[in-house]
Write a structure and sequence with these properties.
The complex is a heterodimer. By secondary structure, chain A is of the alpha/beta class. Chain A is built from 13 helices and 8 strands. In chain A, the strands form 2 sheets. Chain A has a 4-stranded parallel β-sheet with strand order 2-1-3-4, sandwiched between helices. In chain A, strands 6-5-7-8 form a 4-stranded parallel β-sheet, sandwiched between helices. In chain A, strand 7, helix 12 and strand 8 form a beta-alpha-beta unit. In chain A, helix 11 crosses helix 12. The longest helix of chain A has 17 residues. By secondary structure, chain B is an alpha/beta fold. The mean pLDDT of chain B is 95. The chains are: A alpha/beta, B alpha/beta. Chains A and B meet through helix 1, helix 2, helix 3, helix 4 and helix 8 of A and helix 1, helix 15, helix 17, helix 18 and helix 19 of B.
Chain lengths: 232, 468
């Protein structure tokens, strides 16, 4: 199977370790991963902010770049939700490649049939299901199933887990006050778990939560769950 | 024709929200109330094995109504008229409020009792009646609280959600309604005593309707307290203000909605009182029945292919109760009688003016509203659609265009990543992996949270270095 990594623009620039983790996990499972360098951004920020025309070239670029691959994997629930949910409406020709685009846990559990990726991470971790992964992709228990199989990992439940953290892309800037109020509640819930790490499938939400945690000098650190699954 | 009345925000949402966020008591009240209703709704919805099928049916029935609205409206008019009702048509809020005021004036009444109704809030009826020297008495407990407080509703179903019980007792006390304690039964008893006299004296009642059945001309009011039943049966004249999207084709269609509505709104299996009336019944109930059908921007909304699904709304307010934004700021921040997620897509579409263009941005697109909606309105989809059609700030437009232009070319994109990574180097040197303060416009981010800094190597640089 020809698997391509769509690393996403945020991960490419700010969280490259997450992309490396995906490569490591898949190679450890015996798969070959390619990184088509023609990729850039899925266009989610443009589309969700009301800039459809500006999103279209990015959608076309994605479809063209990933067309040759059997499966596309991305370590981001919201970028994959953009691709699978919006692409077919924005550019109908992109529908086939959009349907072959998976969030990491979908690729692992549904396509490759793996729930134990052979990782070891002896830490107390809580998991925040991000909104687009939860309600658009319906990832359900997949990420948690993968985390539960990690050796040494103590997965603690996050109270109010399904409540939005308040990131929301440009929402965090346009409605900064409301975003901060939501963040404060999420950070409080995270800290109360006593976890060392808060894991999620989206680094954008984690940058927001992690930024809030570090501002209040909390001990809990944000971590993309791919980096836990890659740990040995 | 655009809608008028109490659906136009006067202030941009972020400014109104900022003020509400500072009110700690409000936030505590809202959190407690929304979480209570949220949990109740989840429990009773979980009991219904065919809930998803009911939602699909509800959406399909409403879409059918919307696709042949003119025909069904005329059918309703004919059936209601044949049953002895007088049907009136109003293009907008101003016309509707004037029409109802004239109808009341013609009866000679100087006081009317009201059933809780979003449509009459929408058209600003109480204000219009007051200007004509007619007192409108709200008989729904929460509406009464809001009215006595000289306030406006902040929730579709629970208009006084922003008050807690001790605040309510104070409001009552200021208005001569004595409750010995702030226990809900004591408060309800004080209201009951106050209202009983009003019900018995009233000659005219004003209501809305949850549903209007096209083939029979029947109106339906769904309520919990029985005050509606009193208003609908005791007075001589009954005037109902009904949005044109409230139709269902046949009586049988109510089967779907009478399951969907109570569970979604109050989190009850069935509401205590469902009143239905078809025109005038000699010897029983009101002798004169008026129905005022209101457009007020609904036809404009119907013309939008994506946005029209907002007209499926049955005003259950489940979307408000699950919305993390509503929970923090309350209904008043939305500046319209329709707050929360549904308000954010309904108000701008109906009115097309004022500060309403900021409402579609009052959402993180978390999708909780879509999941909760009993008629499957894809609220996030409509929010994004309205962001697309609404105005954009010039600086933002320039930035978005530049970013898109950069990102659509592999060369330009790689160069931009490199530049960003290099640009962050001094910050990295000074601050480490994250930074506490950034200049405008990123200051909006660092006001509440630290910002992560790009590390020394982008992913693609690592890939090129390690893998080729």
């Amino acid at each position: 199977m020809k698997i391509a990594l769509f690393v996403t623009c945020v991960n490419d620039l700010v969280f490259p370790d997450t992309g490396k983790a995906v490569v490591r996990i898949l190679e450890r499972l015996g798969h070959t991963v390619e990184f088509p360098v023609g990729q850039s951004c899925c266009g989610q920020m443009h589309a969700n902010s009301g800039y459809r025309a500006e999103a279209l070239p990015l959608v076309r670029n994605f479809a063209q770049t990933f067309e040759p691959y059997d499966a596309v994997v991305a370590p981001s629930g919201s970028c994959v939700a953009m691709v699978r949910d919006s692409y077919p409406r924005l550019v109908p020709e992109s529908a086939p490649v959009a349907s072959r685009t998976y969030e990491l846990s979908e690729l692992l559990v549904d396509v490759l049939g793996v729930t134990d990726v052979g990782a070891t991470f002896p830490h107390r971790v809580t998991y925040h299901p991000t909104c687009h992964g939860l309600r658009m992709l319906r990832l359900g228990d997949r990420p948690r199933t993968l985390l539960r199989a990690v050796r040494g990992l103590d997965l603690v439940e996050l109270p109010g887990a399904e409540e939005c953290c308040g990131f929301g892309g440009t929402f965090a800037m346009k409605n900064a006050g409301v975003s901060a109020a939501m963040l404060a509640d999420k950070c409080g819930a995270v800290v109360d778990t006593g976890a060392e790490y808060v894991a999620a499938v989206d680094n954008s939400c984690l940058a927001h939560i992690g930024g809030g945690l570090s501002r209040r000098a909390a001990g809990t650190k944000p971590i993309h769950y791919a980096e836990i699954l890659a740990a040995e | 024709m655009s809608g008028t009345g109490n659906i136009v925000a006067r202030r941009p949402f972020p400014a109104a929200a900022k003020e509400k966020l500072a009110d700690a008591q409000l936030r505590a009240n809202l959190r407690r109330a929304t979480h209570t209703i949220r949990d109740k709704r989840l429990r009773v919805v979980g009991e219904v094995p065919d809930w998803e099928a009911l939602r699909v049916a509800g959406a399909a029935i409403k879409d059918d109504v919307l696709s042949r609205l003119p025909e069904l409206l005329e059918q309703f008019e004919a059936a209601a008229t044949a049953a002895g009702a007088v049907v009136h048509w109003a293009r907008d809020a101003d016309e509707a409020a004037a029409l109802v005021t004239d109808l009341v004036r013609a009866t000679g009444a100087t006081e009317v009792v009201k059933v809780k109704s979003m449509a009459t809030q929408e058209i600003g009826l109480n204000e219009e009646l007051a200007a004509a020297g007619i007192a409108a008495v709200e008989t729904d407990l929460a509406e009464l609280i809001v009215q006595l407080a000289d306030d406006t509703p902040s929730h579709i179903l629970v208009p006084a959600i922003h008050y807690n019980r001790s605040q309510i007792r104070d409001i009552f006390a200021r208005n001569g309604l004595t409750a010995l304690t702030d226990d809900p039964p004591a408060l309800a008893e004080a209201a009951r005593r106050h209202l009983r006299a009003k019900f018995l004296a009233a000659k005219v009642a004003i209501s809305g309707a949850n549903f209007a059945v096209a083939d029979s001309g029947t109106l339906v009011v769904v309520e919990s307290e029985g005050n509606g039943r009193m208003c609908l049966t005791l007075p001589e004249t009954l005037i109902s203000v009904v949005g044109i999207e409230k139709l269902v084709p046949t009586f049988r269609d109510l089967e779907v909605f009478l399951q969907l509505l109570p569970r979604s709104s109050t989190g009850e299996r069935m509401n205590p009182y469902t009143s239905m009336w078809t025109g005038v019944t000699p010897g029983d109930g009101p002798r004169t029945v008026h129905v005022v059908l209101v457009d007020n921007g609904r036809t404009d909304t119907l013309a939008d292919e994506v946005g029209r699904q907002a007209l499926r709304c049955i005003r259950c307010s489940a979307c408000l109760n699950v919305c993390p934004v509503y929970e923090r700021v309350g209904g008043h921040a939305y500046g319209s009688v329709y707050p929360g997620p549904i308000g954010a897509i309904l108000s701008p579409q109906m009115s097309g003016e004022g500060a309403n263009h900021t409402l579609p941005y009052a959402s993180t697109l978390c999708g909780a509203c879509y999941d909760a909606c009993p008629v499957r309105i894809n609220i996030p989809e409509v929010l994004v659609h309205l962001r697309q059609t609404g105005p954009h700030p010039a600086a933002e437009r320039t930035a978005m265009r530049a970013l898109s232009w950069t990102m659509r070319s592999r060369r330009r994109y790689a160069a931009a990543l490199r530049a960003a990574r290099r640009g962050a180097a001094p910050l990295r040197w000074a601050a480490g992996t994250s930074v506490r303060r950034l200049p405008w416009p990123m200051s909006a981010w660092t006001a509440a949270r630290d910002a992560p800094l790009p590390p020394k190597q982008t992913f693609r640089e690592w890939w090129a270095h390690e893998r080729r």
